[in-house]
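Notes from the pairing session

We agreed to fold both candidates in a single pass and log them together. This is the raw record for the first candidate, unedited. Please don't reformat it; downstream parsing expects exactly this layout.

Candidate A
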Amino acid sequence: MNILELTTILLLLASIFSIINLRLLKLPQTIGLMILAIGLSISVLAIGLISPSFLETVTTLIKSYDFEILLIDVMLPFLLFAGAISVDVHELLKDKVTILLLATFGVIFSTFAVGSGVFWLVEQPFFGLNELGLSYIDCLLFGALIAPTDPIAVLAMVKKMNLSLTTETRIAGESLFNDGIGVVIFLTLFKIRKQGIDNISIGSVSELFATEVIGGVALGALIGYLGLKLVKYIENEHVELEVLITLSLVLLVSIVSQQFHVSGVLGVVVMGLFLNRNVDTDKKEAGVQKAMGGYVYKFWHLLDETLNAILFILIGLEIIPIFQNFDSSYFMISILTIAIVVVSRGIGVWTPIKFLSYFKSFEKNTAMIITWGGLRGGLSIALALNLPNEIGEGKNLILFLTYMVVLFTILVQGLTLKKIVK
C-alpha cells in the first residue's frame, strides 16, 4: 500500500470517527477519536482470533508505516507551530521564568524519578521481569520519553476549560517547551547508551545538551525574526503568500535542525512565537494588528485539527503490534508505573510553583491542574518505537508501559480534567 492510499484511509477514518464523536459520543475530539481508534484496534484483534492471516496482514501494514519518523519529522513540527501561534505571546513573555522553570525542572525530575522507580520495579523478583536485562540507562530512556506532555492534547483540552488567561498560558507554554527539553534529554541518554557510559564525560553530555537547546532556540529565533520581517513586508495583503511562507519556514527549521543536530522541536516553537507577535507591541492601542493575517491562523487551525485527528487514530492503531507481544505481569507493573508517573509529575510541578509563589501569585490548586492536565500522546509512543532493538525483550515492556500511560492520561485524566478544574 503506497503513501497516497494510506493517507486516504487515514483521512476517511478521521472524518468518519469525527462525525461519530460529534453526533453520538459528544466527547472532546482528542478523547473521542482515541476511544474509537482503540475500538477499531480491538475489533481487528478479535477478528485476528478467527483469521490469523488477517491480523498478520494488518500488523505488517502498521509496522511498515514508520510512525516515529512520520510524527517526529513530519507531523510534530506543524502541530507545534500551530500550537505556538495560538498562545498569547505577551502573557508568555511576562511569565517566561515560570514556564521555563516548570518545563526544565519538571522534565528532568520526572525523567530520573520515573526511570529509577521503573528500574526498581523491574529488578524485583516478584514480577519476574529481571531476566529482560533492562539496564538503568534503559529505564532512564523510558523516563525521558514519558516525561514531556503532549502539547496537542493539552492545548485542545485547556481551550475548553475556561481558565484564566495567565493559568492557560502557563499550562500551554510549559507543555510546548517541555517537549523540546524532553526530546533533548532523550537524545542525550540515547547517545550515552550507544557509546557506553564509560566513554562519555560530563563535559560531552553538557556540550550535547547545550548544543541541542541553545542551537534550537537560536535557529528558531533567527528564522522567526527573518520570517517576521517578511510577513510584515507583505502587510497582510496577500494572505495566501503568508500561508506559503509559514509552511516553508516550518519545513526549513526541521531540515536545518537535522543537518546541524540541534533541537528542531524548540526551533519550531520559538519561530512560531516570533511570528505570532503584533506589528505594534503597544498592547494599550486598540485593535493591535497581528503580524500575520487572520486567514493564516484559520489555515493553521484547520491543519492542526486534521493532523490531530490522524495522530490519535495512529496512536490507537499502534495498540495492535504492541499488545501482541506482552506478558500478563506487564499489567501489574503498568499500574504501578502510572502511579509513579503521576506522582513524579506532581512533585516536578509543585516544587517550582512553591518556590516561585514567594515572588509571584498563582491561582489556587494551579499545581494540581497542571499535574492532572499533563496528558501524554504521540511523541512518547514515537520515541518508544525509536528505541534500539538491542534492548531486546525489554523494548516490548517499555512500549507497553508507554502505551498504558498514554491511555490513562488521555482517557482518565482527560475525561476528569474538567471536574478537577471546577
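Candidate B (folded immediately after A)
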Amino acid sequence: MKLKLPFKSGDAKEHKTEREKVEERREEVLSRGRKFKYPLQYAKHKLVINTIIIATVGVVLLVIAGWAALYKFQDMGDIMYRISRVVPVAVAKVDGKNVLFSDYLMTVRSSLAALDQQSSVLDTKEEDFGAVENGYKRQALTQAEELTFALKLGEELSISVSDEEVAKAFDEHRRVGGAERSEESFLKVLNTNFGLSKDEYERMLYLSLMKSKVAQAIDAEAEKVAKEIEAKLAGNGGDFEAVRNEMGNKVEFGATGGLIDNKNVDGGRSGMASNLGVGEVSKRFLSSNGDGYYFVKTLEKTETQVNYISLYVKFTEFSRRFKEVKEAGLITEYISLPELGE
C-alpha cells in the first residue's frame, strides 16, 4: 500500500521559510561576486610582484652605475663624493682593512682645488696640468692607505683620538702664523682654497693625529735616540753640534742662520724657541706634524723674532712597517693609478 505525501516535491520552494530564502539569496550574490574578486586578487598580486622586480632592477642598475662611476671612470664630482660619505665603499684594502673612498676623495679633491686656484694664476699647459693631477691622485691614495694602516695599528694598540684633541688641533691651525682668525673666516679660507667643510677638515685632523700617535707609540728606536740626546746635552752644556757629530745620521741638525718670525711654520720650533731664554735648551717635544722629536736652543730673540738651532729625531718605524706591508702584497687597490715617476 502506497502512502500519499501531503505535498509534491516541486512544492518545496513554496514551503521555504523567509530565513532560508534570505540565505539562498545571499549565497547567490556571493557566488556572483567571487567571479570578480579572484581575478582582482590575482591582478593585485601580479602588480606587487612586478613592482618588486622593477625596484630590484632599478637598484641593481644604480649600483652598477655607481660602481662604474667610482671604479671605472673615477668620478670625483660632488654627487659621487657625497654618496661615498654615506655608503662606506672601499677604494683599496691595507692588510685586511678597507681604505674608505671618501677619505681618498676628500684628500684628492682638496689638493685639486688648491691646484685649480694656482692654475688660474700660473700659466699651466693642459698636458702639464693632467700630469700634476695624476700625481695628486697617486699621492692621495697612498696617503689614504697610510692613514688606514695607522687606524689598523691604533685599533690593535688601543690608541684613540678624542673630540677634544681634534678641537684643540683645529684651534691651533686656525691661529697658525700668529693670525687670530675667527672660525668663520678660517672656514672660508678652507672652503675657498681647498673646498673643505669643517667636518671634512676635522676628519683630516683626526686621521693625522691618529697616525702621529701610532708613529710615536711604535718607534722604540726614536725613543732610545731621544734619551741619548737628552743625556749628551745634559753632560756637554747644550752643545748641539757636538751631539750631531757624535750621533751621525741618527739625528738631523738645523739652524735658522739668523732671526726669523717667531710665528714661523716650522714644526713648532720657533714657538718653542721664543719661549726660552737666550742660551736655554728645550726638553724634547713632538713636532707639530707628529713625525718626530725636536730639541731647540735659542741663540737670540726679540719680541717678534727668534734665532735658534735644533736637533731632530725622525720617526721611521711606521714607514718601515708600511713598506713591509706593501712589499708583502698586502695592499690591494680597486682603481688603477700610475705610480709616481711612471
